[in-house]
């Protein structure tokens, strides 16, 4: 965040609530992270495809990490606080107390997580309406969005939850309410996950048609009837109670929040790439695709005009970068799938022991093991006989089919460490091919993409990054600041503080035409390294070398001729 009228020595705090943990960062005026802390959070899976969390547990974790990152500094220099979080559904009663989202009546488990697939029947019925709002979610609503989950609560937990509910929040909005007492929702959450239109507002006919007319009747008070753009300052800032919890001064500016993927997108998409010879240096920001890869991967592309991409969410106006339309492609499990494949393998205990002995992560160990066993051929060739279809939790984009399942072909009887390493590689390749399908769908609909900007936990894995470059044929840019999602959250706090409103013009010149509000300024960090690709090092077509037509049909691809030809 160079320049500006901000006080000398001003700091901003960003808090990022991911699926597995809560992270906080203390960020300075240049957008550099000075302190970082993280803390795991609880998750419950009371039955298959039901995933729950606790808003109290998450808030407690936010307090722990925030106190840690501000230790040793003068807290009066902190000017703003911003939150981002997964797009999970938080349920509170009229007195803002947690309500159970489960048959067990466990009220501390009051969050239906984003990856919860309990509302399959509800989302099918919603999609059957073919209501016009579905045009803005790629034509098919995902079971991971909020409307099907709300309908599930109404149909399954009427007495214990639905009738008592006073407030349904997206998790990022819950956090900003908890910090300020302001129930206004961020446009980011409502537009991307709740069918709200920034231009037209709520569509009464949708809620009536799907059986959730209750919201219309009470003027949407339970799901939000006051909206603010991300980064807007909320109320009187941090309440005394929240200030005590977080170890911060009361009254500091708190921003309207963002969903985690959107904060990551904001943290990377405006990066200064000059001097690396990248195609996107001379191109508008719309040639960049931010890929936020953690438990899931989210593919965030922006455009000047709305673009409708079948199977890809959006177009959403100003939901990530002000003034631009957003399309969001996604893969529901990527980090989670890699963990699942590796941890479930018979050779995992051996891997763990060997990695521990070398003081390495299992992934660093596996990457070096692949280098050892590759012999004279490129690593990509190790998987000529082993293929993974990665849709273990359905396909979010571009097939938008929650019924798809995962598949592995080419298994043998041996289950040693070499087999584990190769299965891990095939999984990473399959995920990267999933990204390629999303990029192709976006380009076919009108996006013109030249460069990937990766962030999130998986971007710390060099194999994952290189494989994405190889398989998409695009350079991948990583920022020097590895925790870019937190930078995005801190930008919100900086924006809410008002410190950056006057630095816009010089930075617009530097960014060669990126036209935004102050939100992108903090992205102005140096690049750590850039992977440039002269040509694909992976010759192997994805999965399908020897796939029969029958198999392609099983995979749900038969009718998509364009995609099938890619796979041959
Ligand atoms: N250094 C690393 N090397 C390889 N994989 C990593 C590394 N750090 C995190 N990951 C992977 O990233 C995923 C989690 O990313 P993260 O951004 O923390 O997720 P979330 O935001 O969903 O909580 C996990 O699958 C984890 O295994
Ligand atoms: O739908 C999403 C964003 O729109 C994300 O998949 C969801 O928020 C989970 O994120 P993460 O993988 O970082 O935990």
Explain what this protein looks like in three dimensions.
β2 and β3 form a beta hairpin. The protein is globular, with a radius of gyration of 23 Å. It is 32% helix and 17% strand. α9 (260-268) packs across α15 and α12 (362-373) crosses α13. It has 18 helices and 21 strands. It has a seven-stranded mixed sheet with strand order 15-16-14-13-19-20-21. The chain starts with 10 loop residues before the first strand and ends with a helix. The protein has a domain at 11-258: Nucleotidyltransferase, domain 5. With 568 residues, it is an alpha/beta fold.
CATH-level-4 superfamily name of the domain at 11-258: ATPase, nucleotide binding domain
If you consult CATH, what is the topology of the domain at 11-258?
A: Nucleotidyltransferase, domain 5
Main sheet characteristics: 7 strands, mixed
Strand-residue fraction? 15-25%
CATH architecture of the domain at 11-258: 2-Layer Sandwich
Number of helices: 18
Detail the poorly predicted runs.
1-7, 502-568
């Amino acid at each position: 965040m160079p320049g500006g009228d901000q006080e000398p020595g001003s700091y901003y705090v960003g808090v990022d609530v991911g699926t597995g943990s809560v992270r906080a960062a203390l960020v300075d005026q240049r957008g550099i992270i000075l302190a970082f802390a993280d803390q795991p959070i609880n998750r419950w899976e009371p039955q298959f495809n039901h995933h729950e969390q606790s808003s109290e547990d998450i808030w407690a974790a936010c307090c722990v990490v925030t106190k840690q990152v501000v230790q040793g500094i003068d807290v009066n220099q902190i000017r703003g606080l911003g939150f981002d979080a997964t797009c999970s559904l938080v349920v509170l009663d009229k007195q803002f107390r947690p309500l159970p989202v489960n048959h067990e009546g466990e009220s501390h488990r009051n969050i239906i997580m984003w990856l919860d697939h309990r509302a399959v029947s509800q989302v099918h019925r919603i999609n059957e309406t073919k209501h016009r709002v579905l045009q803005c979610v790629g034509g098919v609503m995902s079971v991971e969005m909020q409307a099907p989950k709300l309908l599930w609560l109404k149909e399954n937990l009427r007495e214990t939850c639905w009738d008592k509910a006073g407030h349904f929040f997206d998790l990022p909005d819950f956090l900003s309410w908890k910090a300020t007492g302001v129930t206004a929702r961020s446009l980011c959450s409502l537009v991307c996950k709740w069918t709200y239109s920034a231009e037209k507002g709520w569509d009464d006919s949708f809620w009536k048609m799907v059986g959730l007319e209750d919201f219309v009747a009470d003027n949407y008070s339970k799901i939000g009837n006051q909206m603010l753009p991300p980064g807007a300052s909320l109320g009187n800032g941090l309440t005394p109670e929240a200030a005590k919890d977080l170890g911060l001064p009361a009254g500091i500016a708190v921003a309207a929040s963002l969903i985690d993927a959107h904060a990551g997108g904001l943290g990377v998409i405006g990066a200064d790439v000059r001097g690396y010879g990248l195609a996107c240096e001379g191109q508008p920001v719309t040639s960049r695709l931010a890929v936020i890869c953690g438990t899931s991967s989210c593919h965030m592309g922006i455009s000047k005009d709305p673009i409708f991409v079948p199977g890809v969410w959006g177009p959403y106006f100003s939901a990530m970068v002000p003034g631009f339309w957003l399309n969001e492609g996604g893969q529901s499990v990527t980090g989670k799938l890699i963990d699942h494949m590796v941890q479930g393998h018979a050779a995992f205990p051996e891997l763990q022991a060997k990695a521990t002995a070398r003081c390495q992560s299992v992934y660093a160990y596996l990457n070096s093991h692949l280098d050892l066993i590759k012999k004279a051929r490129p690593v990509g060739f190790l998987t000529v006989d082993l293929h993974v279809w990665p849709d273990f939790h359905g396909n979010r984009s571009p097939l938008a089919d929650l019924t798809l399942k995962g598949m592995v072909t080419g298994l043998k009887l041996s289950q040693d460490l070499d087999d584990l390493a190769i299965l891990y590689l095939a999984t990473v390749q399959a995920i990267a091919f999933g990204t390629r399908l999303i990029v192709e769908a976006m380009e076919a609909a009108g996006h013109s993409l030249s460069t990937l900007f990766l962030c999130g936990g998986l971007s710390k894995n060099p194999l994952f990054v290189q494989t994405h470059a190889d398989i998409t044929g695009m350079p991948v840019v990583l920022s020097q600041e590895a925790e870019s999602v937190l930078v995005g959250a801190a930008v919100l706090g900086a924006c809410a503080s008002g410190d950056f409103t006057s630095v816009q013009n010089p930075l617009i010149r530097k960014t060669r035409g990126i036209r935004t509000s102050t939100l992108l300024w903090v992205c102005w960090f140096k690049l750590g390294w850039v992977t440039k690709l002269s040509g694909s090092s992976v010759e192997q077509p994805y999965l399908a070398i020897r796939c029969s037509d029958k198999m392609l049909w099983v995979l749900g691809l038969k009718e998509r001729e364009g995609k099938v030809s890619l796979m041959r």
